[in-house]
Task: inverse folding
């Protein structure tokens, strides 16, 4: 059943909310990518070992694992709006503190907390956005959140390159601190963003839910109309933010699907973005402060460009065929580099760009699927859980990639990445559902939902 939100006209309010919610992904892309450039100067200045570099690269991802798991649950229990700006304040403090950090343990600790704050933003912002969007625009605007991620990543390499040119390798402190400025910008953009009317209605605040819809959408609605198609409110209050519900018979398969496809996608992806210069260097691209950094920036740009045809595909051919075919094709360039580790640098760059472009399908569905497949009372919990699981893969990949390049070589490393992607293909082939054109309540509905009520 559709609600007034599902059928509402698309307005400037939706555009502003989508921009405000894009802050988390953009900052994630920036914070995770800028460290790859900063390590160029950080490693010789601080005398970092390979293990130190791996720890610094993986620290934010481990923090995201913790943050996604904890703050997704809290978001379903205490609301989307409560923590909407607090996480940005934490990012500002950690970014500024990074300027003075000169010990490995302190840099690792600050990036761990940064990761927690970034991961907190995903369940807060994407669930809030999903619960305000009309059906026709939901897939596109949720998918565009990953565009913000790659925009942040590209910006990080541009800023990093500029710092290297102007300040040399010693400018790495300014690189790490620069994310504070972006946080301030999004703090200003987020001023006045409303709470989710669905969350308000489910938590006994029906008058506020009705008022906020009238204010921002300009239509009159009742609480019953807002909650049409949702589970009974009494059950929601009992199970809001419950990880147990995610693994109940009603949602177990969806939970595994969202977590595993996300993990298999970002494991190789994050490692490549974080240590792009090292990968390209292994194929003979001149190292230093220019060519390898610009080459990785180009790959990041292609990741971004690949999202646009995928955004059209998920609303055209559908979510399921888009993600299945994308994973299948992503294997090809990785396998090519795996069996041809002596490929010229130009061939390696083209292959990695092809992989980046083909990643568009799962990229735009990273937050679309978990927001569509789970109802309001566990939506943020599901997004947080999927984010946490994905960052396990990302952290492992980021930690192991430089060690693998050193100990195993380029070919085996690329074959391992291809194997992880192949697992993602199997997960999608068996479990991916089609949610195109369905209302949020219909997409998140489950024929086995009654099993949740017994918990």
Result:
């Amino acid at each position: 059943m559709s609600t007034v939100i599902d059928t509402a006209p698309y307005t400037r309010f939706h555009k502003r909310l989508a921009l405000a919610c894009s802050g988390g992904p953009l900052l994630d892309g920036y914070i995770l990518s800028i460290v790859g450039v900063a390590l160029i100067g950080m490693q010789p200045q601080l005398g970092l070992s390979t293990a130190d570099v791996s720890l610094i690269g993986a620290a934010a991802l481990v923090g995201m694992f913790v943050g996604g798991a904890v703050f997704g649950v809290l978001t379903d229990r205490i609301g989307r709006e409560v923590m909407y700006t607090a996480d940005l304040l934490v990012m500002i403090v950690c970014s500024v503190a990074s300027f003075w950090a000169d010990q490995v343990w302190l840099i690792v600790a600050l990036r761990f907390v940064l990761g927690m704050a970034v991961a907190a933003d995903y369940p807060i912002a994407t669930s809030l956005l999903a619960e305000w969007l009309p059906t026709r625009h939901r897939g596109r605007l949720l998918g565009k959140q990953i565009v913000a991620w790659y925009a942040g990543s590209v910006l990080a390499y541009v800023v990093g390159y500029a710092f290297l040119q102007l300040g040399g390798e010693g400018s790495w402190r300014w690189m790490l601190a620069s994310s504070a400025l972006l946080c301030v910008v999004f703090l200003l953009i987020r001023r006045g963003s409303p709470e989710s009317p669905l969350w308000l209605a489910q938590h006994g605040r029906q008058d506020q839910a009705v008022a906020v819809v009238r204010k921002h959408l300009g239509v009159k609605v009742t609480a019953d109309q807002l909650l049409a198609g949702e589970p009974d409110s009494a059950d929601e209050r009992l199970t809001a933010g419950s990880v147990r519900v995610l693994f109940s018979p009603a949602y177990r398969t969806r939970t595994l699907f969202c977590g595993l496809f996300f993990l298999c996608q970002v494991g190789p992806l994050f490692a490549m973005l974080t240590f792009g210069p090292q990968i390209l260097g292994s194929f003979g691209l001149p190292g230093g402060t220019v060519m390898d950094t610009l080459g990785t920036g180009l790959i990041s740009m292609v990741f971004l460009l690949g999202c646009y045809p995928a955004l059209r595909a998920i609303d055209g051919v559908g979510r399921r065929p888009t993600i299945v075919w994308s994973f299948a094709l992503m294997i090809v360039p990785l396998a090519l580099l795996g069996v041809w580790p002596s490929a010229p640098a130009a061939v390696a760059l083209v292959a990695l760009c092809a992989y980046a472009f083909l990643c568009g399908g799962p990229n735009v569905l990273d937050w679309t699927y978990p927001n569509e497949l789970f109802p309001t009372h566990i939506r943020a919990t599901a997004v947080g859980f999927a984010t946490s699981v994905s960052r396990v893969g990302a952290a492992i990949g980021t930690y192991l990639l430089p060690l693998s390049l050193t100990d195993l070589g380029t070919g085996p490393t690329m074959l391992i990445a291809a194997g992880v992607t192949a697992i993602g293909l199997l997960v999608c082939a068996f479990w991916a559902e089609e949610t195109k054109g369905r209302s949020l309540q219909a997409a998140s509905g489950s024929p086995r939902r009654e099993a949740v009520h017994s918990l």
Remarks:
- The two ends are 26 Å apart (CA to CA).
- The chain has one domain: 12-454.
